[in-house]
Every structure is written in structure tokens, then in C-alpha cells.
Amino acid sequence: MIRIVFCGACNPVFSLKDLASKIRYEFQDNFFITDEILLLLNGCRTGCLKSENFVVPGCEKMVYVAGMSVDGLETEESNLSETVISAVRVLYSQ
To answer: In what order do the strands lie in the sheet with 2-6?
Structure first.
């Protein structure tokens, strides 16, 4: 139900691998069954992965991470994984 797309990690301010691992662990039973939620992980504020460039049929829900920003709201690195997990949970509840 969650598809993660990674940027090229040319200038990350956090570990994309660590964040993805935490998300996969939290939602381990909900990966790649369908594309219900798209999670775009950009390692820096530049955000090379642009949401408008990703259209997945049947997927209308998206969480966009760009550096320490989740869906446009800044967070601390220590809270990043919990912020992303919370954003995904909100989308699951809709």
C-alpha cells in the first residue's frame, strides 16, 4: 500500500536508508500490495523528486519529504521518522 520513491541522494541532510527502514518496519505488512500511498523521499530541501512528475493510476495519496520538511512543514531531524509515519497514518485513515 506504500510505494517509496528515492531521490538520487546527491546532497542528503539525513539518511534516506535509515528513514525508509523505519517506515518499512512500521508498516511492514502494507508494502507494495497496491499503490495506495506514494512516499517521495528527497534527501535535501531542493527536492529533485517533484510530486507533479509522479502520477500513479489509482494513487491519490502522497507524502512529500524534502530535507527536514514533510508535506511543506519543517521538523527536526530527531522527529523526522515520526512525522513521516504520522503523515502516512493520516492518509490511511482517510
So the answer is: 2-6, 37-42, 61-66, 69-70, 73-74
Which ranges of 1-79 does DSSP label H, i.e. alpha helix? 16-26
Domain extent listing, the chain = 2-93
Q: How is the chain split among helix, strand and coil, in percent rounded to 5? A: 35, 25, 40
Q: Per residue in 24-57, pLDDT tens?
A: 898 887 655 455 788 999 999 999 988 778 777 7
pTM beyond 0.70: the answer is yes
Residue 27: phi and psi, rounded to 5, are: -120, 35
CA–CA distance, 17 with 78 (Å, rounded to integer): 15
